[in-house]
Amino acid sequence: MRLLLATATGAAVLLGGAGITATAAGASTSLTARTAAGDITGVSAGNTYVPSDGTVQAGINFTVKDPLGTDPSTTVPASVTAEISPPGKAARSVNVSYSQPSKGSDGKLPTSAAGTGSFNISSDDPAGDWSLTFKVSRGGSVSTDSFTVNVTGKKASISASVSPDPVNLKKGREVQVDVSARVKDAGSVSARLVSDDTSEYYDLGTLSQDGYGVYTGSTYFSDDTEPGAWTLEVTATRGNETFKGQVAFTVNEPEGGVSKKAKSKVTLSVQKKGTKIKVYGKATRAGKAYKGKMLAVYYKAKGAKGKYKRIAWVKTDSAGKYSTKVTIKKDGYVKVRLSGTSKTRSAWSPQKFVNIK
Question: Signal sequence span per UniProt (predicted)?
Fold first, then answer.
């Protein structure tokens, strides 16, 4: 695992831009209570970073316990306010969105109710632990719940690795190469594996988010991959900012030389209409249209553990083009596999993220 610092100089570059509106629904992390009365639980926050320029809007999610009290005969509705305090600065108000629920049709009181909130972080604010305080009013009493929000600085960081390193090529076989990156509050993370000596590269596309701040992807190196020095290039977005990092790794040539197979390639594009996704692209063999080839479409839901699942087959036409429609019920990742033969190398398309909302 190597640490990449996205700064204005060096191997990684940070490009500044104006902040955009966001909520905690995308990349968010759960918060631990500092002091708690127990009225506010399930607190998470997202977009909690200091932008290089302008302002970003951080988002929070929270849950109110017993929002109408516990006695059905005498309801005591809760009202919620919140403020947040940066280190060394005065507290500022949090814009809270919370609606009091109603009794159930059976007369029972709800045990919880969800709310959201937002606050601004500007380029002159400090990084570090910010104090988020909720005040819950019920009748004439007020309770307080406090949480710590970690706000990262302008100097964004990526921890990234390639496995295995070195990559030892094998004659007549593919070698799986895995990429892992850790980036906090990233909107998306993509990766390429690039030869330092030639124009050859493997495009992994958008890495899958397997947990908060954890992104992974994989590809397969054929035995004719250029040996020598290679570089993992990671590109992440955070609001309207883009930052990049690099990690060096090595590829060793296969023992016994390279098998005589034609190289193949498959591209991928997606179009979304609700849960219906059009998947299309083109397959080539030795630089020419690969006609009549069966391709497999794979999918994995965002945040899901385990392997991709094959969801469709599609055949290329006389021009090597393919197109099919699939139904996806959750946000996730799609990629296409072109299987190899005794005379043709296999290939994977770059991965694409599909947002069905």
Answer: 1-24
